[in-house]
Specification:
- The chain is mostly helical.
- Helix content is 60%, strand content 0%.
- The chain has two domains: 86 residues, lambda repressor-like DNA-binding domains (434 Repressor (Amino-terminal Domain), Orthogonal Bundle), CATH 1.10.260.40; 49 residues, no CATH class.
- The protein has seven helices and no strands.
- The longest helix has 25 residues.
- It is globular.
- The N and C termini lie far apart (81 Å).
């Protein structure tokens, strides 16, 4: 029984990277690589959000004031090396920028989804739309909500194209009907 416990401990320690002898824990190489990748993604996403925010670019100083996170910490997060960030800090940053999903800074699919929503919002504002009221009788997590969002995005795109066409009409030859 003791031999099994020792063998299991050794196997677990090999997986986690725990080092016996000096008492230090060392992350295995794959974990260190993944952590570096996550920090780089976090830095890239935060820089993108600050530079492309719907209200306009947000400086580090302004974000520090809005979020209550020091400018030094924000700068460290955006650096190439990155920094370990607490969940509290992530919540403060995203919340101060109007992003409810903390995963925006951590997960590429969420980042892309929220950016498409922000792009639609910017399009609505450019077209003078100040608000949209949606009422749903279905589960908000269902695909119907996504379909409505896609439909609204399509309507906004069509409206923008129509506006552009009306503002600068091109002459078409007589043998080509208007589309």
């Amino acid at each position: 029984m003791l031999a099994c416990a020792l063998q299991c401990t050794v196997e677990v320690d090999e997986l986690t990277g725990n080092q016996h002898g000096n008492g230090e824990e060392v992350a295995p190489e794959w974990a260190a690589s993944r952590i570096t990748e996550i920090k780089a993604g976090l830095a890239r996403r935060l820089r993108h959000l600050r530079q492309h925010h719907p209200e306009g670019p947000v400086s580090l100083s302004a974000l520090a004031t809005r979020s209550g996170v020091s400018k030094r910490t924000l700068s460290a997060i955006e650096s190439d090396e990155g920094v370990n960030v607490t969940l509290e800090t992530l919540v403060k940053i995203t919340g101060s920028l109007g992003i409810e999903r903390v995963a925006y800074l951590l997960d590429e699919p969420v980042f892309n989804e929220v950016n498409s929503e922000l792009t639609a919002l910017a399009g609505m504002r450019r077209n003078g739309l100040t608000g949209v009221a949606l009422r749903s009788t279905c589960d908000p997590n269902s695909s119907a909500v996504d379909e409505v969002a896609d439909l609204l995005s399509g309507i906004l795109e069509s409206a923008q194209k129509a506006r552009e066409a009306l503002e600068s009409p091109s002459r078409k030859p007589a043998d080509q009907p208007w589309r």
